[in-house]
Amino acid sequence: MDKPSLLQLCAKYTLSMSILGMSTTAFAASTEIKTLQNQINQLQKQVNKLATSKISTNHLSDSNSHAYFEHKPGTDLTFYTPGGEITGYGKLDVSIDAMTKNIGSKPFFDGVYPLGNWGWMPDISSNLSYLGVRGFQHLGCYPFNFIYQLEAGIRLSSTPGTVETNNNQSNIVDSALFSRQTFIGFGSSKWGAIKIGKTQSPYYYATVALNPFAGEIGDYRVMMGNVGGDNRVEYGSVFLSHSLWYESPNINGFTFNFLFSPGQNRAKNSNNIPAGEPDCSSINSPESGANFPVTCDDGSFRNVVSTSLTYQNGPLFLSGAFEYHQQSNRQVDISVIYGITAFPFPNDYAQNLFDKDIGDETASKIAVMYQFPTKTTLGGIVEYMHRSLPNYLEFQNERQRFGTWLLLSQEINDHSSIYFGWGHAFRSPGDPGNFQNSTLITVDGAGVYGPNKNAANLYTIAFKHMLSKNLTWYVDWAETVNEFSGHYDLGAGGRSVHTDCHDASGASGGLVSTPRCWTGQKLMGVSTGLQWVF
């Protein structure tokens, strides 16, 4: 016969005590009460003995009698804990690259040439590498689990530290402990999960399946979700701190995600550093780029809302996503147009442009992907990014445009595949201009800006071969071709090494830097690396 459980004994004890209470009232002196009392005493001894046994072994096993940190059967790094599980995971990716900022397609400006090496240069890059743990704990009678994840970015080939380039400065250490997706929350296979912490938004995850070049030089984030062509990717790629989000379960192939991130910014024009954060919400410091004034005026925003809906049925994948950034501050573009290094602006017209260059920004996209029986996969994305501004500010609005992405891949065998990607950034309504393309004059005659000939194309090809279940070797070639005012780069989206429009002028990314962006260039690179995922 099975031994009685603690719960069963407690139930018997409680019932017996109830009977005793009733019996005492009616038959206080009877022999039955003595007999019942003896039974209760025996039950009490068994309860105490069983409880002591449970307490003494609680540190060694969980409620299902698994040893503490007993490895769960399977290939994952998963271990049992008392009442739950914990899993270690990660990705290690390092590549050797050769990159050039110009392959001879563009004459330089008025006899002025870029400072430093503008041609081919080798590098070694750590690409979206990270380590983390995730797990869950059962909560007894509740119909959901407590869930958690702790994830840290790591740099395998470069020194961890704050970002410091000749055109950007940031106080964030991207390889610090738990610098990536980290959260706690509650989860249920029936109702989904609600989480709080920091994460990349649903806008990012909605189409990640169409980006097999993630972390490589041909990453589609060179153009997708990237409004101005810089190394920063405004939509989806940034880890949104202080966020609350919901992830639905799979319902007949459909999944839905929704996120809200409070801006924690008391400035009505979003130019403060968010409360509790080391940087502006645009992932740079107020001193970044030597631009005036020294505030969060280079894309900083307040509240964020992001949502996505996806559907998958066999070889068919469909997705749609939307993201909203409230009151995004781009006042630095007006400062650049007028060459302002101190107040006041030259006239009321210029001052008004500066004051009004704050507006809501949104992005939306739809995607479709299909795998044919031949193991050929074809997919595409159409994206539109919008910035709400008065008409008189559209002449410098480079933050609004359409973008497209085409993916074609072919599985060669069980271990090898080849991928081709083409991204196109359409022209924006305007352009604030850069070092050598500011050829137009503002209506007040006091400032200069660039023509909106800023479209660009990204072409990339990759070959990948699985050396084992976890280890992949890859080779990637990519080229970005910019129009006269375009300055899209190679490698945006998470690599430690980017190749962009800036020459070697200005050694610091702070107030004393003198960055020069040479627009209209054709950038090219080749890369080979190893990626270990577990």
Task: Please summarize the sheet with the most strands.
Answer: 16 strands, antiparallel, barrel
Distance between the termini: 45 Å
Radius of gyration: 30 Å
Residue windows where pLDDT falls under 50 for at least 5 positions: 1-30, 50-63
Q: Under the CATH scheme, which architecture of the largest domain would be assigned?
A: Beta Barrel
Find the CATH superfamily of the largest domain: Porin
Account of the protein in words:
With 534 residues, this protein is mainly β. The protein has two domains: 6-57; 106-112 and 128-295 and 317-336 and 346-504 and 515-533, Beta Barrel (Porin), CATH 2.40.160.10. Helix content is 13%, strand content 37%. It is built from five helices and 22 strands. The protein has helices spanning 6-26, 31-57, 202-205, 332-338, 348-356; strands at 77-81, 84-100, 121-126, 130-138, 145-153, 162-164, 169-173, 182-188, 192-199, 240-247, 254-261, 304-313, 316-329, 358-371, 376-387, 401-411, 416-425, 440-441, 448-449, 456-466, 471-482, 522-533. Strands 2-4-5-8-9-10-11-12-13-14-15-16-17-20-21-22 form a 16-stranded antiparallel beta barrel. A hairpin with a 4-residue loop joins strand 16 (401-411) and strand 17. Helix 1 runs antiparallel to helix 2 (31-57). The longest helix is centred in the N-terminal third of the chain and has 27 residues, at 31-57. Mean pLDDT is 86; it is low at 1-30 and 50-63.
